[in-house]
Amino acid sequence: MNSSYNANNIQVLEGLEAVRKRPGMYVGGTDIKALHHLVYEVVDNSIDEALAGFCDHIIITIHEDQSVTVSDNGRGIPVDIHPEKGISALQVVMTTLHAGGKFGGGSYKVSGGLHGVGVSAVNALSEWCNVEVKRDGIIYRQRYERGIPVQEVQAVGECAENDTGTSTHYRFDSEIFGDEFTYRFETLVQRFREMAFVTRQVKIELIDERDNSEMTFFFEGGITSFVRYLNKNRKFLHPVVHAEKEVDGITVEAAIQYTNAFAESVYSFANTINTIDGGSHLTGLKIAVTRSINDYARKSGLIKETDSNFSGDDTREGLTAIVSIKHPDPQFESQTKVKLM
Q: For position 100, what pLDDT does the model report?
């Protein structure tokens, strides 16, 4: 170790170098979970277009070479020249951290991709990435290798004026993730089924060309349908109770149903993202359920004045519940968005 420490020892990582140097900060690691997280980050952009009302069809394809294509019929990433950067907005989005249309510019009311990191991080951690955009009757394309553009954004064809969308085709970088991991179809099925439930009336197709497996999801009932699905093999005690309300631009939606099971099945979502570690919305749901049951029990004389209230564990026994919020500016614990602050 050199004992000297001066300005020459200070290293500045430019562009997407930081992502390749510390991938765990952006996608949670370099294991199989992080590999799947790459897919989720790209799909989240398409879901954001759906939440904005501009997309109703998303197709995810796993190819035989372990590459993945995510296509949607949204508005398509802008390709015109960015006023500050002087390059195509597509290249800015794909190669610049914290760049995107979700920082209050009015393009999205709510979104899951809030940090402007997701798709650029995927690009940085990919051996190669090809993005094709359909806008204004023209098909545009740009290719990147390990996050670096190898060509300018090019117009490569024409399409119908109303044919719009973005298609991202990438192959994860084996130098970072190795070759011992592969995508698990069932893991992706679970994630995209959840997305289809909480997004409502958006068709999500998952195609696996490795063994010709396919699954398509489309649900009109939203989280009410989700609760019914979770309880399909359980004996439920009453119909699903659903509530939805918007306050100060924040939409809160909950669906609950009790069964004769002992365990609880409670899930939380923020802007369609499964917050597996919960957060303030899940805590709020649990408190509300416990308080409501205790209030009712007191008023109905089911609990005597000398008796203590039911505990949270008591009131959640056999509970199946979903809470989903749509928030214009949610605060997550990290880029992987597993917990809502």
A: 58
Give residue 318's pLDDT: 96
Question: Cα(first)–Cα(last) distance of the chain, in Å?
Answer: 41
C-alpha–C-alpha distance, residues 120 and 114, integer Å: 13
pLDDT surpassing 70 at residue 115: no
Q: Where are the CATH 3.30.230.10 domain residues in the chain?
A: 222-326
Write the class of the CATH domain 222-326.
alpha beta
- Band (pLDDT 50/70/90 cuts) for residue 234 is very high
CATH superfamily of 17-217: Histidine kinase-like ATPase, C-terminal domain (3.30.565.10)
3-class secondary-structure state, position 234:
coil
Alpha helices in the chain (DSSP H): 17-21, 24-27, 32-51, 89-95, 118-124, 174-177, 185-199, 222-230, 280-299, 312-315
Portions of the chain given CATH number 3.30.565.10: 17-217
Residue type for position 183? Y
Average of per-residue pLDDT values in the chain: 89
CA distance 281 to 284: 5
